[in-house]
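Residues pack. One example:


***
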Amino acid sequence: MLQPRYTMYGLDVKDVMSHNGSLHSRVLRVLLTSHLADLQASMLDKVRAVMADEITSSKIAYGGWTGIKSFRMAKHLIRTANSGVFFGEELSRQSRFLTAALQYPDDLLIASEILRFVPKMVAPLAAPILMRNRRGSKVMVEYLVPMIQGRLNDGDSSKAKPLDCVQWIIDSNPRREPWPPEKIIQAVLGLWFASVHQPAIQLVYAIDALCKHSEYMEPLREEIQKHLRKGESALPFDEMPLLDSFLKESARLYPSDSISVRRKALSTFTFSDGSEVKKGEVVCVPLRAMMRDDENYDEATVFNGFRFVNSDGSKNTSKFADGDRKYPLWGLGRRIW
């Protein structure tokens, strides 16, 4: 769907998932998760800087209030905050690189949508034009190649390793058939797009839900301030069931896509009811319809910000990051059943 061969530095995604490796899963689910507390302070500084910039640079005013374009702000905020996590503090402070990293997801999304309707023989010629002659990815590669090569060649085990996704991909590199710098860059570009596109959309929907349902502002503010008053160096999100539930409910009622769990049939398959999927066809699940189905959720079309906490709001009944058949927002892994 995203035409990675043309939009992600030549990434060749195999039909058989096991051939693509599971490195990204270890990087995101294990290494990133285990270091979130160490990264929060830097991310918070970036969030504050972005919000200050958005407010002071805005020319929209409503009766003494400053207006901000929510989607532009969300993209700016998510991408800037994530840049240090992905590329490290030194590279994320390079204004030329950061500008390219912020532009790349937009170029990719527009190009991939148009390339879906372009004949295959024309795609190699059209892709560079649609990707603005790959300006964003070219600049990113220009900076990433020497950084990755330098880290691969650095055999000094006594030095503290950088805390960023690039380093974790290097550390998770298969020993039998190690990835060259080019393939590491392909993985970085793919993960970078995934990390900024959907979160930015979901942030906009969450802000919109909060504006429409202002009764949730005070309990959410109190839950966050309770931990801020403790002076904790990192906010313990696992101990914020109300915030987690609100975000999950916002994403349930207003998902960033209408379908999920896309699968391509590698051979013709017939279901028990006689339905047939032919080789090469793509199937998916109707994400939005499923999460608005009264058979899956009580009053499914009604926003209930605390739907996913117990009666006293002290514990989640299910978490935002959880995925199941009724909530396939994040996909369902390799096998659904």
